[in-house]
Structure formats: structure tokens, C-alpha cells
Write a structure and sequence with these properties.
The complex is a heterodimer. Helices cover 42% and strands 8% of the residues of chain A. By secondary structure, chain A is mainly α. At the A-B interface, helix 3, helix 4 and helix 5 of A face strand 1, strand 2, strand 3, strand 4 and helix 5 of B.
């Protein structure tokens, strides 16, 4: 991962990173929400930070918190950038799995988690 | 990781210096990362950017780790800060979580009450794990359950947060608890 020289040291306001975008982020963008980049969407024309988000997500699935950590940006700022990329179809998002009662799918996911943990 | 990928979020809670970061570091396949999250008053959403008008908010660095469990499932572990002033942030973090792992240091058992209270309040499944330190007293399960006011159904394990072969038992106990005691799921949103 390329280390950013543009560290957030209190000198850059949060809204600079979002390109002045102050509209609220989508609700439900969890720290563990997975982001999937659409490789078919052009990244040319995107501002620097959204483009960096795309570059991070294109090789594989990353969570909102991973994107924030890699870009050295606060979570709320990344949520605003990600929200715009979701609106434009560059990204799609999947909220973390939460089991629901009496759902066979939930039990199946939990069993897979359990099997994987036991192998550690 | 295919497009069907799902994430699972588990919180690691407990008082200051109980071993949360160690636990996350041991289990994580990546060097634990840190994200700066907005700390708000209880129940408030964290998505506003207007820093100047929010005098009663500040940010806090939060450590997290990642563990790919299968082709489709990736586990995220978040070390939740224990100090009461971070409760608002921890409550937000609890949304969307599978459950919580409460670490206990037997030299100061009562310090873990706070984390248990937060999980109970959020009706989130949890497991209590004693993280043994060299020289820390060893108590019987019965004594620990009594000290922590835990009923017999609530899982209690002992582990060493520095060893993956030991640390994993905390997560295994949590997932088993969720899987085999479905009444707890009735409370999750």
C-alpha cells in the first residue's frame, strides 16, 4: 500500500477531502460494510480521493474501515466519498451479516464461520 | 474474494489494557489498522461533516483487524475502547455486529462490568473470556460467574490473547452461542 504523504494533520478540513461535498453520507454504511468496485465504470473524471477509493477497491473487496485506514481519512469523510460512488454506480455495498432467527441461511453462514475458526 | 462476499463484525470489549489490541493483532491476517471515528453522544449518527458546530464530538482512533474465513466470508474484529466517554461510539459500532467478546483480567474483574452492561443493553450476544496474564489469579468458573453475575447459559472461556490457538476459542464460543441458542437472535435487528 502506498503511504500517503498527504497526512491528515489538522491542516486540511474534512470537506476538502470530499471536494466540498457536505451532503450527508448514506445511512447504514457500517465500518464493516464491504465495498465492491465495478471495473466497468470509468475512473477518469473522478476527483483525487474518490479515485483513490476506487483504486483500493478494484483489486478486491474491502470494508469501509479498511478504505478509511489506507487513505488516512476519518470514517465519516470516507462514508461521504463512498456514498457518492455508490450513487454513481462505481461501487456497490454489502452490509455486514447479521443472523436472523429461524433463517436456514443464517445458520449456514454461522456454521461456515465456526468451521473456519476451528481450523485456525 | 468473489462478489458474493459477506462480512461478519465482532467487537472485542473490555477495560483499558485488558488485551483487546493484542487479541485483534493475534487473530488478524493483516497488520491491525486504525480508523478515526467520530465520537458522539449516545444514539446519534456519525455522518455529519460540519466539524465546527459539533463542539461535543471528537474523534477517536479505533483498531481493527481482518480475517478471511472462507472464499466468501471475511471477519472484522473491532477493538472497542473501554472508557465510558466512548460509549456512544461503541453503541454505534454494535449495530450490525454479530456479537461481542468481553475480555476480563482476573486482577480487576469488576472493570469488565461496563462492557457487559453495554452488550446487555444492546441485546447483543456475547461471550466472556478471561485473558490470563502471568501472575494473575486463577479462579474457578463458578467464582467468575458469581463475580460477573453470569448465568450458566452465558459462555465463559479462558484464553491467552497472544496465541491464535488459544484466542480462537473466544470466537468459537461466541459463534456456538449464537448458533445453538437461537432465542438470542430474536433480539437482533
Amino acid at each position: 500500500m502506498t503511504q500517503s504523504r498527504h497526512r491528515r494533520a489538522g491542516m486540511v478540513r474534512s470537506h476538502t477531502a470530499t471536494g466540498g461535498d457536505l451532503t450527508p453520507a448514506r445511512q447504514g454504511l457500517d465500518a464493516a460494510t464491504l465495498l465492491l468496485a465495478d471495473a466497468g465504470q470509468p475512473v477518469t473524471g473522478l476527483a483525487a480521493q474518490p479515485r483513490r477509493v476506487m483504486e483500493l477497491c478494484l483489486p478486491g473487496v474491502l470494508s469501509v474501515s479498511e478504505v478509511a485506514a489506507h487513505l488516512h481519512l476519518p470514517g465519516p469523510v470516507v462514508r461521504v466519498i463512498v456514498s457518492r460512488l455508490l450513487d454513481s454506480g462505481h461501487l456497490s455495498a454489502r452490509a455486514p451479516f447479521v443472523p436472523t432467527a429461524s433463517s436456514p441461511h443464517s445458520a449456514e453462514v454461522l456454521r461456515k464461520v465456526l468451521v473456519a475458526l476451528e481450523k485456525l | 474474494m468473489p462478489a458474493r462476499a459477506q462480512s461478519v463484525k465482532v467487537l472485542v470489549l473490555g477495560p483499558f489494557a485488558v488485551g483487546k489490541t493484542t487479541f485483534v493483532r493475534t487473530v488478524s491476517e493483516i497488520r491491525p489498522l486504525s480508523t478515526e471515528e467520530r465520537m458522539t453522544r449516545a444514539g446519534e449518527l456519525v455522518d455529519e461533516l460540519d466539524e465546527l458546530s459539533e463542539k461535543d464530538t471528537t474523534t477517536v482512533a479505533m483498531d481493527f483487524g481482518r480475517l478471511t474465513l472462507s472464499e466468501e466470508i471475511v471477519l472484522y474484529l473491532f477493538g472497542a475502547p473501554g472508557q465510558p466517554r466512548f460509549h456512544g461510539m461503541v453503541r454505534s459500532l454494535m449495530q450490525g455486529a454479530l456479537g461481542g467478546l468481553v475480555l476480563v483480567d482476573t486482577r480487576r474483574i469488576a472493570d469488565s462490568f461496563d462492557a457487559i452492561d453495554l452488550l446487555e443493553e444492546a441485546r447483543l450476544p456475547y461471550t466472556v473470556a478471561v485473558n490470563h496474564f502471568s501472575g494473575s489469579p486463577r479462579y474457578s468458573d463458578a467464582h467468575l460467574r458469581d463475580s460477573l453475575s453470569m448465568d450458566d447459559e452465558q459462555p465463559l472461556v479462558s484464553l491467552d490473547a497472544r496465541e491464535i490457538g488459544s484466542a480462537k476459542h473466544g470466537l468459537i464460543a461466541l459463534v456456538r452461542h449464537i448458533l445453538y441458542r437461537p432465542r438470542h437472535l430474536e433480539h437482533t435487528p
